[in-house]
């Protein structure tokens, strides 16, 4: 019965079902654009993937012919391409069903200090007569860093199970996709010693106050003191008190769900807060005094389903991945992670991880016992299309574990500011918004969830056309961006698209 209630609640908040019949409808024009009008490179970059975006999936195979012009850059000496472009033309192949295509720019040299060096690539022709150039028919690849001027991005979140979270950097027009089940916790690299949970996997954690012996805790353990909590009843729409005195009892309400335990009035939450502040982590700040760091029980979240959802729906939550016990120590420059299966009483694993100032967080996989490359360096991403996002909080009458789809965060730990513009009388449309319209006082630097899921209407299955966003990155570049697609052209969710422009 409890499982049925949970499924109904999730269905009510997260799942839409919409079907369309395109039989007999004409396909929209097939147009090709460069995904960005400018691409910058650093001295360390040796290759750059140059992407061509399509207005719809290709209904037939074909070839896009791209030409180039170098400024102080010669083919074969300063750069090459893959496929080969020594003839002056790069033939980019397109397969039926492709939604984009790409070629590789191979940088063979760097620019001399003080000089300008670049290559401009242009769409020249197609072997399919009904294919057309779009508005962005060329892109400039610079041998030095340059902030991208704009583009259209089709994200790589991966479909209706939303297997990937995507990090996007506006100035470099770069997206990085990471499978969201590759890590459970992340260690903060700033001056404070903090531990974050993977909200994209619905990870949660509870402290066993006063307990420092990792091996003394098992599911059969009594809690040091009774915890007075609440659980939400979907049937009665009320919070019901729960007194928990054993670990086995606590585990029933630890995983994120509509029956998750917590007590917001007392500040008890087993997830990080939605805002992502340092003070809002489920783990207390790691003390440099070892005896002050207690054992935590970590719920490892949920498997990514292997089967896609029906068209128009999502399937992001599979089987529960189990529990581990974890204790984290720190000396200010390193973290020591002690961890073991909940039933283990003989030995535990221990890993030491050094802080790395280039990154906000260092991700760690409790399942595999190793650090994982997840976030780009803190200066190289602006928004995280996490896809799935879970935390304990309140929405309307519901005070419980909330799990969202199609969620977007911004890099508050990396000094990125963002605000939402709601279109109403007297407010500029997205097309007309300019640098003169920027409101410096509106930028939010202490709440990563400003975008959240408000950019789309889950029940209507459409993009929210009444909002767009303004962003200021850590280098002082200003961008506006607007979501333009919620699904792919076949109606499958988990395929997002947005357009952006530097102000």
Automatic annotation (TrEMBL):
The entry's keywords:
Signal
- One protein family per Pfam: HmuY
The reply to whether Signal figures as a keyword in the UniProt entry is yes
Q: Which residues form the signal peptide?
A: 1-21
The record's annotation in PROSITE patterns points to: PROKAR_LIPOPROTEIN
- On the tree of life, the source organism's domain of life is Bacteria
Q: Give the InterPro entries listed for this entry.
A: HmuY
* Name recorded for this polypeptide: HmuY protein
Native species? Flagellimonas abyssi
User: What taxonomic ancestry is recorded?
Assistant: Bacteria, Pseudomonadati, Bacteroidota, Flavobacteriia, Flavobacteriales
């Amino acid at each position: 019965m409890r499982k049925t209630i949970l499924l109904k609640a999730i269905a009510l908040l997260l799942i839409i079902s919409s079907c369309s019949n395109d039989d007999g409808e004409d396909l929209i024009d097939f147009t090709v654009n460069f995904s960005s009008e400018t691409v910058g490179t650093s001295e360390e970059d040796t290759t750059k993937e140059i992407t061509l975006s399509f207005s719809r999936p290709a209904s037939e195979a074909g070839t896009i012919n791209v030409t180039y012009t170098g400024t102080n850059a010669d083919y074969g000496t300063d750069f090459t391409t893959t496929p080969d472009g020594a003839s002056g033309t790069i033939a980019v192949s397109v397969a039926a069903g492709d939604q984009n295509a790409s070629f590789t720019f191979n940088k063979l040299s760097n620019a001399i200090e003080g000089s300008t060096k670049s290559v401009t690539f242009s769409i020249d022709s197609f072997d399919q007569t009904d294919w057309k150039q779009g508005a962005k028919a060329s892109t400039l690849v610079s041998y030095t860093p340059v902030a991208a001027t704009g583009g259209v991005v089709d994200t790589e979140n991966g479909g209706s199970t939303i297997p990937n979270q995507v990090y996007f950097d506006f100035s470099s027009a770069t997206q990085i996709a990471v499978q969201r089940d590759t890590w459970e916790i992340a260690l903060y690299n700033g001056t404070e010693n903090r531990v974050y949970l993977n909200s994209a996997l619905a990870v949660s954690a509870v402290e066993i106050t006063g307990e420092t012996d990792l091996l003394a805790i098992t599911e059969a353990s009594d809690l040091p003191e009774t915890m007075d909590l609440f659980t939400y009843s979907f049937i009665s729409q009320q919070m019901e008190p729960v007194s928990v005195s054993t670990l086995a009892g606590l585990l029933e309400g630890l995983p994120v769900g509509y029956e998750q335990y917590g007590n917001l009035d007392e500040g008890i939450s087993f997830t990080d807060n939605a805002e992502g502040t340092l003070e809002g982590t489920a783990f207390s700040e790691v003390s440099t005094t070892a005896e002050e760091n207690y054992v935590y029980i970590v719920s490892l979240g949920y498997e990514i389903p292997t089967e896609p959802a029906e068209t128009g729906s999502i399937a992001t939550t599979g089987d529960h991945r189990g529990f581990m016990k974890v204790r984290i120590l720190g000396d200010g420059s390193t973290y020591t992670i002690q961890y073991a299966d909940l039933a283990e009483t003989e030995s535990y694993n221990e890993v030491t991880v050094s802080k790395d100032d280039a990154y906000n967080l260092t991700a760690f996989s409790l399942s595999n016992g190793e650090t994982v490359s997840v976030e780009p360096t803190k200066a190289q991403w602006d928004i995280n299309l996490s896809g799935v996002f879970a935390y304990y909080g309140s929405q309307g009458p519901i005070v419980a574990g909330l799990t969202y789809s199609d969620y977007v965060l911004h890099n508050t730990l990396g000094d990125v500011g963002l605000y939402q513009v709601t279109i109403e009388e007297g407010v500029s449309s997205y097309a007309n918004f300019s640098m003169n319209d920027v409101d410096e006082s509106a930028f939010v630097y202490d709440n990563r969830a400003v975008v959240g899921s408000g950019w789309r209407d889950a029940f209507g299955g459409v993009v929210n056309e009444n909002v767009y966003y303004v962003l200021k990155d850590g280098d002082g570049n200003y961008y506006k961006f607007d979501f333009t697609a919620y699904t792919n052209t076949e109606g499958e969710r988990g395929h997002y698209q947005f357009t952006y422009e530097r102000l």
